[in-house]
Amino acid sequence: MASERECARCFTIRFAYSPTVTLKGGAASVAIGLIAFCLVVAPVGGVAGVSTGGPAPAPAPSVSQVATPTDAPTTSNNSTIQHANPDSASGSGDLSTIREWLSGRISETLIDCTEQTRVAERVACSRLDESYPDWASKYATVVQESGERGDSEETLAEFNKTRTQQRSYIEAVNDFRETKSKYERARESGNTSKARSLARELVADAVAVNRTGGQLQGQYQQLTDRTSLDLDEGSQTIEVVVENTTETSEQIRELEFVETTLQISANRTTASFGSPTRLDGRLATNESKAVANRAINVLVGEQLLRTQTDAEGRFDLVYRPTLLSLDSDRVRVMYRPARTSLYGRSETTVGLSVRQTNASVTVSRSDETARYGEIVRFTGRVSAAGRDVANVPVRVSLGERSRTVTTTANGTFSVPLPVPASLAVGTQTANAAVALTDRAISSAQNRTAVQIRSTETNLSLSATNVTNSAAQISGQLTTDSGQPVSSQQIQIRVGGTTVKTLSTDARGMVQSTIGLEEANGSVTVTAAYDPNGGNLEPSTDAVELTVPSGEHTGTGTSWWNAPTGFIAIVGLLAVLGTSGIVAAEALELLPTRILDLLSRKRDQKQSVSSEIAAAETEEITTTATADATESAAVDAELAAVVEPQLARGATDEAVIATYETIRTKMTDSLGVEKSLTHWELLEHVRAEASEDVSAIFTELTSAYEQAAYAPEPVQRDRALELLEVAQQVVDQTDQF
C-alpha cells in the first residue's frame, strides 16, 4: 500500500507536471509551494550556484517509483477502495485523477471509522483528526481549479461538517457501549438501583445514537451530492449499528422498567403567566394499576414541576407558561421518573393556547467605577403580573461584551462582565434585556450606568539576532499593574518609518522579523501603542540597534538569483510553513525582502490568534498574581484546543472543543462520572455549583447542542464569545 507520504507526493507531482493548470488567488500560492517542493525532491541536479561543501545527496525517487494502485488499502470489512495513481493520469491538467485519489482516501477514512462503530468496543478513528482535514482542504483546492462542482469554500464546509457529525456519532456509540458495560457489571453485582440508573442512561444514549446516526447519513448524502465520494457502504453500516443499538436498549428497558401511561386534562383552553391553568392528571402502569402515593416530576412545556400522586395515582398542577410560543395550541406533558425509579417515562399532550404577559426587569451594578479588565457584576430580577419569573433568558451587555444567563427560581440573575479595552472613558451604559420574542413572557429591558476610568499601559521592546539585513523583535503590552493586553495594534518603526503593524496575542506579546537593509551603522527601532479611542493610554518603547557593517551575508546572491534556487527555497518554505520561515530567519537563508513577505503571513496568523484569545484575557483580574498565572495557563490550554478550528473557519468544531474542555474540568471538579450526557451533567452543575457557574455552563451546554446537532453553523463572533464564557467557568471553580 502506498504510504501517505508517497501519495501526498503523487499529489504535489501531479500539480507540478500539469502545464495547463491555471491557478489563481490563494490556490496559486499553494501551487507554487507544491511545484517547488517537487523541484526540491525530484531527481534533478543541485540548485544552481549552491555549494554545500560535502557530497551531493542521493537523488529522490522518480515519479515512476511511486507506489501504484495495486497496493490499494482495504477497510476492516475487506471491501477494497480503489485509488488511481495521479502520475498515471493522461492529458495535461487532469485534475480529475487527483480528485479521484482524494475521494478514495476520504471515503476510506469515513467508511473505516463507521465500520469501527460496528465491530470495535471503543472507536478511536485518529485519521479524522490527522489526515482527513488536509485531504479535505486539497479536495476543495481541486474543486476551485476545476470549476466543475461549485464553490470550494462550500465544499470544504461540507467536509468539515461531515467530520464534526462523524465525531458526534462516534462519541454517541462509544457512550452507549461504555454505559452498557457498566450496566452489565451493576446487574452482575446485584446493585439494582445502579442498574436502573444506568439502564435509563442507556436508553438516552440509544436515542443519541439514533439521532446522530441519522444526521450523519443525511450529511453523507449531502457530501455525495456535492462531490465524487461514494459513502453508501458507510450509510448501510450506520443503519445496522442504529438498529442493533435500538434493539438492545428496548430489551433492557423492558427488563428494568414498568411502563406507564399518563392522562392529563386542563381546566381552561387559554392560559398566561398571569392567568395560569390547572392540570389534572393520573399516572398508572400499562395494566392500569395506579402509581400511588409517590412524589413525581412532571415536565410541562419547558417547566419541570413536582407534585404528589394520591392512592389512585391522581395529581394536579398549576402551570404558568413562560417560554411557550404564542403560536402554540398544545403543550407536551411528560412524567420524568427518578433515575433509580422502577417506572418508565410516559408523555402526552393537552390542548392549550397562550396569551402574552408583559414582563419587567431591574438591573444594578456592583461598582460605580471600573477600568480595563476589572469585573463588573450586574444583578437584577425579572417579574411579571406581580410574580418572579424563573428560567427565562436575560442578556446583559457592556460595550462589545455581552452574556446571556437564565433567571433562578426567584427570578434573579447575576452576570460578571469584564471591561473591554474599546469602551470609552466616562459614563457608559450597561443594558439588561429579557431575550424573548413572541413568547408567553414579553421582552423587556433596563439600563444602569458605569463610570469607566482610563488605564496606563507599559510597552516593552527587545531585539535579537541582529544582522546587517534583519533583526528579530519581540515586545509585550501590559497595564500598569502587569495585566497582559490582547488584540491591540502595535506599530513598529525603523528610523521613524512605520514598517509593520502587529497585533498582541493572549499574553500581550508581539514578535516578528524586520528588515535593516537601509540602516547604516546604527538605527532606532520603536514600538508604539496609540489606540484610537477606548480606555487604555498610549505607550512606546525603543531600542538602539548596532547594525554590523559589510555586505549582506549568509546567503550570497548567485544561487538566489538563479530561478531554480528561488522557486525551490520559497516552495520548500511554503511546504514547511511557519517552522520553515523561523529556520530561514535563524540561518539567514533569505534576503530580508523575502523574509518580510513570508513572515507577514505568519503575522496574519498571529493576528487571528490574538483575536481568538481576546475574550480569554479580558477577564484576568489584577488582584492576585497567582490567579493571573492560573488564568493564563487555562487561556493557553483553551487556545491550543480551539484556535486551529477557528483559524480554518470550523466554528462548530471550535464550540464543541470549548465545551469538551470545560466539561472535563467540570466532571473532575464535581467528582461525577464522565459518561453523563451533557444535560445530565448540567443537572449536577445546577445542583452543586454556584448560580453564576450554573448559568454560564447552561449557556455552554446549549451552544454545544447547537454546534453538534443544528443544521446551521455557529457564527464566528458567537464562538469567540463562548471562549470567554468558558474562561468564566474556570475562574469560578473555587465556588463549588
TrEMBL record:
<feature type="compositionally biased region" description="Polar residues">
    <location>
        <begin position="71"/>
        <end position="95"/>
    </location>
</feature>
<dbReference type="InterPro" id="IPR025403">
    <property type="entry name" value="TgpA-like_C"/>
</dbReference>
<keyword id="KW-0614">Plasmid</keyword>
<feature type="domain" description="Protein-glutamine gamma-glutamyltransferase-like C-terminal">
    <location>
        <begin position="673"/>
        <end position="724"/>
    </location>
</feature>
<protein>
    <recommendedName>
        <fullName>Protein-glutamine gamma-glutamyltransferase-like C-terminal domain-containing protein</fullName>
    </recommendedName>
</protein>
<feature type="compositionally biased region" description="Low complexity">
    <location>
        <begin position="53"/>
        <end position="69"/>
    </location>
</feature>
<feature type="region of interest" description="Disordered">
    <location>
        <begin position="608"/>
        <end position="628"/>
    </location>
</feature>
<feature type="region of interest" description="Disordered">
    <location>
        <begin position="53"/>
        <end position="95"/>
    </location>
</feature>
<dbReference type="Pfam" id="PF13559">
    <property type="entry name" value="DUF4129"/>
</dbReference>
